[in-house]
Here is the input.
Amino acid sequence: MSQFWKPGSEKPTSRLVEDEDGGVLYVRHPTSSSSHSGFGHASLEKQRKRLPVYEYRTAILYLVENHATTVIVGETGSGKTTQIPQYLQEAGWASDGRVIACTQPRRLAVQVVASRVAEEMGVKLGEEVGYTIRFEDMSKPGVTMIKFLTDGVLLREMMDDPLLTKYSVIMVDEAHERSLSTDMLMGLLKKIQNRRPELRLVISSATIEAKSISNFFSYSRRKRHDPESQDVVPSKQPAILSVEGRGYEVKVYFLQEPTSNYLHEAVSTVLSIDEKEPMGDILVFLTGQDDIEAAVQLLNEECQNLGKRSSGLIILPLYAGLSRADQDMIFSPTPRGKRKVVISTNIAETSLTLEGVVYVVDSGFSKQRYYNPISDIENLVVAPISKASARQRAGRAGRVCPGKCYRLYTEEYFNKEMVAHGIPEMQRSNLVSCVMQLKALGIDNILGFDWLASPPPEAMIRALEVLYSLGILDDDAKLTVPLGFQVAEIPLDPMVGTMILSAHSLGCLEEIIIIAAVLSVQSIWASGRGAQKELDDAKLRFAVAEGDHVTFLNIYQGFIRSGKSAQWCYKNFINYNSMKKVIDVREQLIRLVKRLGLVIQSCEKDTEVMRRAITSGFFAHACRLETYGQEGVYKTIRGSQEVYIHPSSVLFRVNPKWVIYHEIVSTEKNYMRNVISIDPSWLTEIAPHFYQVQKPNPVIH
Ligand code: CDP
Ligand code: MG
Here is the structure.
């Protein structure tokens, strides 16, 4: 029980207002005269007290005490993520070995906020304040009181502890992002609340769509209060609290004419800000590692050409998978006389706050997942953002003083073309993992699940079909024993999980684990160094005709032979940080498969066996070469979609007749990333039912 609010203690009435429809409790913001001035070098404690959320501390604790669910809306940077878990801890919600959880959709955000909160509390990261992301656990059972974790990891924890009993409060942060895992989590937490009336949920969001989330949690049925229990059963009516931010005015500029190259436009906008505008950091929103690295390089070149190399621009990329040192550079204060330019994915839109940003350059795009159940292709595409996102991005410029936002699109486009809000990820994703996880959690009636936003039925049917053909679900759509349950235990895509289990049967688990580890990191090539020719030459040193997966194995072995040398990586255009990650993930996977009772055997360089194991997981991604030539045109067997081998693949321009890809990335075309060549007879051998579902005998001639 929280020690801060005792039942019957005085509530902050002046701040509470009853809502007329439905008795939802709102808290209006207190009128405050304190003005926000930049943080300067105030102590951390002073900084904490200056955050907008601090004035609501009492109200937040009151609401959490008295309501099963509290929805908190507040501008980015107001202190929701870093402060609320601390308030809860201070009020005793982490006493008696209980834990306060705070989920984030993004891994990098988990790491960054956890280390910030540890610093504010003056504790070592991984002790009282810890974090867990996939393949990285920095928490200590019995010691950790505040735990940051990805929403995906919390879903995983439900497999061992379905009621999440160790948590007293679960804060689902960044709910407005509506990531697939966040939506799943909210549906499941609503179920848990029925069984655990004492569990408190805090749902926090940067936008005001709070009402729909609050309605969602309103109708959960609750067990009658047990009179023996000491716990106070909170009201099941969710409370909504709105934290008023104190953002400064941001002047917004649009392009007069649309641009066909947002990357160049972004670079020239940065240069012109640097030339004409007073000091203040610049935050540029691009879409992903590739265009961010390209922009960093271009900007460096331009500065050099202009003879401004030492003029004071500190150019930093910000995307998932950055090393700790890179992160530190981004979050440390800008030295006097310098101007920081952070070129970021939309992680800086609401997940992370950068102090000192005065200028925002918004490309109008972000990378988004899109799944087409008809073609059965899930793409990561560069797609236009919503108006809501554009407003969030602009808001980042008004943190410390009035700012400016330069939108690299026209005002007409903003008004007429941009959608108001994005579509929840649930409605545009491949649901194979999601369905398998729900099944593993014992949810049999997936279609009848209480979704915050219902996924399209076609995507659901596709997912069931794929899981069935992988042998994970049986005829009654239940997980198979042992395969289905084993695959569900592996915290990777079911296709990768199936590949690992097949590798066990085929005796090549040793190799496939390495391949799975490499596939789980973004890229092991040091593509950001700009020297394409040298990179291509380096690739040739490792490349094998069987394809990328087998090439990865060569690289891994070379790295181990070099004594895990950073210098070796540099010489061979390999990303050293990625390789360290691979070593880590491999070790964890080995522990996991041992726990599943699997025996690790090596196939001693028999690449056919390896490729068969990969095919067992990825047969649904088979493609056939249709047109020869410099750039071979492939068609997917399943949906007859035109696809191409990605230029980063060792099979680019090699164009084997039959291939299997790991994933599709789309820029101007659908590119297959990470490809192996296969023998088509394996397809009908391994997945006869899959390739006969649509057309009898469709593929092999
Ligand atoms: O979650 P929300 O966007 O409401 O804010 P937050 O992430 O809790 O951040 C609150 C404040 O903490 C920010 O405005 C930053 O001033 C500061 N902060 C920081 O300086 N460094 C970090 N790594 C994280 C937060
Ligand atoms: Mg936050």
Notes: Residues 80-81, 173 surround magnesium ion (ligand 2) (CB under 6 Å). DSSP finds 25 helices and 23 strands in the chain.
